[in-house]
Write the structure tokens for this entry.
Amino acid sequence: MSTVTSERQGRVLIVRIEREERRNAINRETAEGIETALNLLEDDPELWVGIITGTPTVFCAGTDIRERADLRMPRGGEYGVIRRQRNKPLIAAVEGYALGGGFEIALACDLIVASRTAQFGLPETRRGLVATSGALFRAPRALPVNVARELLITGRTLDPERALNLGVVNTLTEPGKALDEALVMASEICESSPTSVSLSLKSVNALYTEDDIRGWTVTDTARDTILQSPDITEGLDAFANRRTPNWSGLSPQ
């Protein structure tokens, strides 16, 4: 059974991550499925808007670190979506947890619809890691910088009401209704000229092109440094064995 499914509803493509037994964590198969679906969205002129969602209880728990696979795709980068150069709007419809790379998928979208069950978080530092799929610069862009720091260094989660008030979530719904509301938003987008929508998105995104280049540079530096730290081995082992990590506190040489 595929871990990613897609469904057309008129000019809208719904992309579902369906790996609930692993909290929709992304493995190689899932990343390839997202890549294929979003390639279809970009290449089919009959499709104007995309929605990416999970299952009714969870959006995505990020990378499946148990597999440690290469999750960079040819067109979309990490998970098939994180570095994608898109011409069409993409909406995240979030139910339940959007953690680590799951939150980074949502941050890579143009709009976020969340239900009252949603929880957003960046727990990488609790595992001896750093966020490597855009959150180091997209979180401070989408949120007040102190809130971004809070998420990045404490492991706390952001509840949907606070996320709405801070502006990272566009619309808040009752449980189980995030996809329905995302479809309403998508239908409203489809009432506009697709050329106008595309040009509007490109113009907004162009404002951040240089920031993105710097953001990926500092992200790559942080990733390369943490890979040399003993804390990454300790953090992953503690996570796998469900124990409290014993951090060395030693900086990489």
